[in-house]
Amino acid sequence: MEDKNVVPLTPDFSLVKLASKAAIGAASVMVLAKFYAWFQTGSLSLQASLVDSMLDILASILNFIIIRQAIKPADKEHRFGHGKAEAIGGLVQTAFIAGSAAWLIIDVAHRLFEPQPLSHVVLGNSVMVAATIITGALIVFQRYVVKRTKSLAIKADSVHYETDFLTNIGVLISLNLSVYFGWLWLDVVVGGVIAVYIFVASLKIALSSVDVLMDKELDNETRIAIKKIISCHPRIHGFHDLRTRSSGYHMFVQFHLDLDKNLPLWEAHQIGEEVEQMIIEKFPTAEVIIHHDAYSQPNIN
């Protein structure tokens, strides 16, 4: 029975581009709205959310540029394609995010000693509710695109907006409690929590990007599925030295196939092509490299 959890679909690059453009548009609207709300309220938690959204728009623009590079087909100088451009972009995003988190933490420490009253809470609430709705809709769309395309760039971008979604909720809570109950310290604490959360999220993106750049093996589920496909061919005696990796939208599979040593060369290659086609049917973005090894039946005498 086919395992639906490990079947990547053929990437729809138009869908990836649309998701990237949608992120830029949503982030632009939220930056303008949050800037005005922060200017009016003076809320530190709203300031943290604003910085998060500013980073989102920078990261989304960077993603759009990277995606255009990553989907380019292989050429003479890049025989394995340009997929790793996504991972490089992920590391660049990490630098932006981690830097902003550090700046926010410094601002939080300053505000702890010099708390400031907040104002225009109704305006702040209106902006944050609207931002939360926009962000939620964008996340749903991005998750759909990631499921369809396995795009690392859109996945990394989605992490930003998931952070933004939680940030918006936190800002709404702290903004109202700070104003109506006089808990000014809560606004500062929420801003600090957001800063730490942003920093942790940046580390996760960095680790995912490094895994791709370092050619980390594919996940166990995918490797097990590949092994089952190879083993089910009736004319092979076994296989060994399975190696896998990913690069952007593509996955690379390499292994040695044990075949009867008396087979003609054309027939051995035909079997290899059959195995290759079976893998590609399951994983359409896979590039398969097979080395054929001669297999001798063990002497039982």
Describe the structure.
With 301 residues, the protein is mainly alpha-helical. Helix content is 67%, strand content 10%. The protein contains eight helices and three strands, in the order αααααααββαβ. Helix 8 links the parallel strand 2 and strand 3.
Notable traits:
single chain; 301 residues; mainly alpha; 3-stranded mixed beta sheet; 3 strands; disordered N terminus
> Which value, in Å, is the CA radius of gyration?
25 Å
Category from helices, strands and their pairing: mainly alpha
What about the largest sheet? 3 strands, mixed
The tally of helices reads 8
Shape: elongated
Distance between the termini: 40 Å
Query: Ranges with pLDDT <50 over ≥5 residues?
Result: 1-10
Q: How many E-type strands?
A: 3
Give the percentage of residues in beta strands. 5-15%
Average per-residue pLDDT, rounded, comes to 78
The strand line-up of the biggest sheet is: 1-2-3
Return the string of H and E elements.
HHHHHHHEEHE
Q: Helix fraction?
A: 55-70%
Please give the structural blueprint:
Blueprint lengths: L12 H29 L2 H27 L14 H29 L7 H29 L2 H29 L3 H30 L6 H12 L6 E10 L2 E11 L4 H18 L3 E10 L6
Parallel strand pairs: 2-3
Antiparallel strand pairs: 1-2
Helix pairs in contact: 1-2, 1-4, 2-3, 2-5, 2-6, 3-6, 4-5, 5-6
